[in-house]
Amino acid sequence: MALDPVQLATFQAVIEHGSFDAAARALHVTPSAVSQRIKALEQVVGQVLVRRARPCTPTAAGEPLVRLGGQVALLEHEALNAARGTLGGRQARTRVAVVVNADSLAGWFLPVLTALPDVDFDLHTDDEGHTAELLRAGTVMAAVTTEQVAVQGCRVLPLGAMRYLAVATPARHATWFAGRDPAAAFATAPMIRFNRKDTLQHRFVRMVTHRDVDPPTHFVPASASFTEAIRLGLGWGLVPEGVARADLAAGRLVDLTVGHHLDVPLHWQYWRLESTALSGLTAAVRAAAATALR
To answer: How far, in Å, are 20, 94, 95, 235, 280 from residue 11 at the CA level?
Structure first.
């Protein structure tokens, strides 16, 4: 049985806007109409598709339909623009949802978006090890991720590696690390992490010392503030090489383990569609990554 396109679009609106009422406002129908369409779609599929919570989220059965709804909407939008273009009509702007890790967004990724001036971007950010989850759920159309195995229905391209250096202020280095065994120093020196998903610091320490540590930890969930917290002496942390370079040259920060670094391979995953917007974005991402990443 074919899916009803109106029901599918309504389902996508509920997930995108987070509630039946918000979807109703976006679609210019009553909440009752939205509820009826969702129930009808669930009857066709034979599964509950929406978790009725705040916000509404797709169930495991609903996630493939989120992707399908987004893909249909994108292709319909581009086809309509192409048809209007043949008659010189005004074209509507395309919206593309992308998830990027915070360090890439703060560094090399944001200028990529200027290559597509006719596209509106809906940017999400998450730890690079978790960004593919939004792609898998259908929330976004493309992702910068560490996951090298293609999500179902997606293509994957290697971008290169983002190099991180372990840094602290000269004063904190003298207090916490100078003349000490690295394992003992890392076990007690305050660590800065982006959030609880951020395991880079622990991975680096394990690589250098072959030990696991549980030091005092500060959580600073913004890339610029993360680096500033290190400059202020709050703790040590891993900073992208490109960000750390100026501070190291100026003597504001020091490399805690000269000769050691952590390279994080990044990949670009995107929906396997013949989409003008996604193709243009992919080309711009690859060009920028070739310059910014190792």
So the answer is: 9, 20, 18, 46, 28
List, for residues 142-158, the tens digit of each pLDDT value. Answer: 999 999 999 888 999 99
CB 204 within 8 A of CB 267: no
- For 40-103, the DSSP string reads HHHHHHTS--EE-SSS-EE-TTTHHHHHHHHHHHHHHHHHHHHHHHHTTPPPPPEEEEEEE-HH
Q: Which domain holds residue 249?
A: 162-263
Q: Give the long-range contacts of residues 54-62, CB within 8 A, separation 24 or more.
A: 54/18, 54/19, 55/18, 55/19, 56/14, 56/15, 56/18, 56/19, 56/20, 57/15, 58/15, 58/137, 58/138, 62/11, 62/15
Q: Considering the entire predicted model, what is its pTM?
A: 0.81
Average pLDDT over residues 199-218: 96
Residue 245 has pLDDT above 60, yes or no: yes
Domain-terminating residue out of 15, 35, 65: 65
Buried-state track 199-235, b at ≥16 Cβ within 10 A, e below 16: ebbbebbeebbeeebebebeebeebeebbebbeeebb
The CATH number of the domain holding residue 254 is 3.40.190.10
- Same domain for 200 and 135, yes or no, is no
